[in-house]
Fold:
Amino acid sequence: MAKKTKTIAKEVDDVAKLMQKLVRLKAADDNGYVRCCTCGVVRLWNDRMQGAHFISRGKLATKIMIENCHPACASCNQWAHKTTLGILEYRRYMVGMYDEDAVDELEALSRTIKKYNRAEVADIKSDFQAQIKFHQTRIGA
Structure:
């Protein structure tokens, strides 16, 4: 029996998981430590740290944009980012990281419709995999 081809939506989900790993590795110092974008706690990149989306993963236009995902501790990502204060703290981080106009543009982009094709998703996946490999080597992971 032939192997069933993944849907593009499933491929995008897989790439989103790679991106979450990449943002933690990319933000890690040379010893593998990363700071939560909301509360500031510092942990190893793979110790209860997650890739937190500023704009919900439900918004396809920004789902696999690296500018929309940053390291966060599990507590902030699962609980604080669902509160008004947590959302404001994350937005403050975003404005400090990029600037107000860039955050406004990201928010506007999230309200647009995006359709990925298989080749586009494959290219993004390949790029993320190469970056992950580089950063794993950099920090000795």
Summary: The mean pLDDT is 94.
